[in-house]
Design goal:
Distance between the termini: 15 Å
Number of strands: 6
Shape: elongated
Number of domains: 2
Structural class: alpha+beta
Order of helices and strands: HHHHHEEEEEEHHHHHH
Radius of gyration: 26 Å
Strand content: 15-25%
Largest sheet: 6 strands, antiparallel
Strand order of the largest sheet: 1-2-3-4-5-6
Oligomer: single chain
Number of helices: 11
Length: about 375
């Protein structure tokens, strides 16, 4: 009965095997559904009759697997836990454990520990995948859908708070030109300090990797008052940002749920009044906890009653998972719209279903 003893290793091995099956089942199902819904669009001929190479589509889906898994990870954990509990029930091993004086809570403790470990791994995987392959996945998708070699972002806004106020930068068009690197067409920045308000504009801005600055073409700096004359400038010095920051800002506008915790936190620092970013910061903290919460809620349906139809109990556990995701989606949407506070929008489903799970878990036979 010691921790990590024979009993724990046996139950953990069942959980690992079940998790492998659940991973391929759930992730594979979502992958097939995505293929069925988008494959025609990906291979639709363009105006010149060309279609993307099949290898490009394969590469996109290989990049997408970690992100699909992150969307359904709690569901995979629940399904694996239900499969494991179902096997224990089918072989009458729960009855044997109870007769030997081992409580049901102690028997499934490795599953609960697995949910905690998987929650931490899910958080780490999101940060790694977003930083390592997220940008490359977006570039490949842009080549498939838009049929261009480099992405083009329009109407991107950047905020940069500082002690004197907040600087604002408007980017009319951003792209990456072969041989030139990142290029901005139409840049307007409003620079605020304690004494004055300054406007900077440029027709073109090119990013220099060596200096980490934007070199301006026909750049001008002028005060907002009419009597101030325009002064020619060569670099944008007051606001620092990189081409990767522009991509993150575009992602915030188009696909905010694809942001990592670090990216969301950085955007929130730039715009602390944005309730959508506040909600996303809390959401990144709470969503991995669903791996534990769903196990606490779903396992008692199979473990608490040894007799009966296992299929009905599996369905009941699955429905609870659906209810959790529905509640999480609704409260998160309300939080991003400012109807609920960011803390309540992100933590309410976890606290409600977590409390329900603790009650169910403690009511299992001892």
């Amino acid at each position: 009965m010691k921790i990590a003893g024979r009993l724990d290793r046996y139950v953990a091995s069942l959980f690992v095997a079940s998790y492998s099956v659940a991973f391929f089942l759930v992730v594979g199902l979502f992958l097939i559904l995505d293929l069925a819904g988008n494959l025609d669009e990906y291979f639709e001929p363009s105006a010149d009759g060309s279609v993307p190479a099949s290898s490009l589509v394969v590469r996109f889906y290989l990049y997408s697997i970690p992100f699909i898994y992150l969307q359904v990870s709690p569901f995979v954990t629940l399904v694996a836990g239900l499969f494991t509990a179902s096997k224990l029930v089918r072989n009458n091993e729960i009855v044997a454990a109870l007769n030997a004086g081992v409580s049901a809570q102690r028997l499934v403790a490795p599953l609960i520990a697995g949910g905690i470990v998987l929650g931490g791994a899910m958080f780490g995987l999101r940060e790694w995948a977003t930083e390592s392959i997220g940008y490359r996945r977006d570039l490949v998708l842009d080549r498939i859908v838009e049929r261009r070699e480099s992405p083009v972002y329009t109407e991107v806004w950047l905020k940069d708070p500082h002690r004197g106020g907040t600087n604002h930068v408007r980017i009319e068009k951003f792209t990456t030109v072969p041989g030139e690197g990142a290029v901005i067409e139409g840049l307007v920045a409003t620079i605020r300090d304690r004494k004055s308000l300054v406007a900077i504009s440029a027709d073109i801005a090119r990013y220099e990797e060596e200096t980490g600055r934007w070199r301006l073409v026909r750049g001008e700096r002028r005060g907002v008052e009419p009597e101030f004359d325009a002064v020619r400038i060569e670099y944008l010095k007051e606001v620092r940002f990189t081409p990767r920051d522009v991509h993150v800002l575009w992602k915030e506008q188009e696909r905010p749920l694809d942001l990592s915790f670090r990216e969301t936190n950085e955007l929130w620092r730039r715009d602390p009044d944005d309730v959508q970013l506040q909600t996303l910061v809390e959401y990144h903290k709470t969503f991995p906890l669903a791996n534990l919460v769903l196990l606490l809620v779903g396992l008692p349906f199979l473990v608490r009653h040894e007799r009966g139809r296992r299929l009905e109990k599996l369905v009941a556990g699955f429905l609870l998972c659906v209810f959790y995701f529905a509640a999480d989606f609704v409260t998160r949407s309300l939080g991003m719209q400012g109807i609920l506070s960011p803390l309540m929008a992100s933590w309410l489903p976890v606290l409600f279903f977590g409390s329900l799970g603790v009650v169910f878990y403690s009511s299992m036979k001892t």
